[in-house]
Please model this.
Amino acid sequence: MLAQLPPVLRDLKLPLRLQLWDGKEIDLGPNPTVTMTVKDPSAVSLLNRPSLGTLGTAYVEGRVELTGPILEVIRVGDALSEALVGDDDDSTPLRQSHDKATDAAAISYHYDLSNDFYALWLDREMVYSCAYFPTGTEDLDSAQQAKLHHLCRKLRLKPGEYLLDVGCGWGGLARFAAREYGVRVFGITLSREQLALGRERVEADGLQGQVELELLDYRDLPQDGRFDKVVSVGMLEHVGHANMPIYCQRLFGAVRAGGLVMNHGITSRHPDGRPVGRGAGEFIDRYVFPNGELPHLATMVTELSLAGMEVVDVESLRLHYARTLEFWSANLEANLGKAAKLVPEQALRIWRLYLAGCSHAFQKGWINLHQILATKPRADGSHELPWSRADLYVR
Model:
């Protein structure tokens, strides 16, 4: 079987050891750091054209085993794929259906996996979105607290204001904004597991009078401008290209004139919104985020503008998300035994690849993360923002 391997494999000098089901081994370079054990003879053919998608699927299905530090597994796998497949960046843009039932099912698939599983690797507030590292030296808990402050400062939250939190998750941001900035918060999610734990934490913090969390689709948001500010974190990825106009219109209708809207979400590298190449995007759509689609920054700016908002500030946190995911991956790797008791084996394989792979993807610039601040101008064109950003960085 070793003779069937593409000759170019021997020329790559990768720190990779191939091990076959019969115990035979070949080192593709000196001092291997990663071992790929081929358990299924038919999987040998994958090495002729090892896309990221086919390699990931083979691991998830148990046809191959990958041993070694998980970030190194991803790095070596990417190098192997790039050498034999090339820098395939011509994937077709996804255009998927996003009705309420489909979106609810996709959210449930991803977020209702297990609250205890997520708690193993997230920060203590269970903030499942990109953290913010003011100096780059912060630990995960500190960086997530810094992110929450960063969002609240950008929104210029003031005591007594009414904040809409779209895609509120386990309520970390909602409770933080209520506690630290004195606002009332209405948060919505489509995950029943998140809602249940979020409400428990609101009650435990004694914030029932300030924070209300509901199971609600963004398309059903009130359109009477009752909210002073709107924040949407990690929701953008689930909206879909076709529904981006209605998503932006719903945010516009929910906020009062003069109010602010903050959208924090993952964005595509490509202006046409195509997924990550070499099969990685298809792998994520199949196993991690069903029906997920990433718009380009330019698309978001366009749709927010067409909805009637004025984009006033944009910040990329791409490297911040790479580091966040590195923390998450390390936490999961340190708790594999506990995780194995909470989720099925295949799910654990998916999440190990997903967290480490996404850290690599953000580090390489395959995807980005943008915070986009917009305002709903008053009739005379005015808004409430200060003349500079200086207030954002006052401690």
Observations:
- The mean pLDDT is 91.
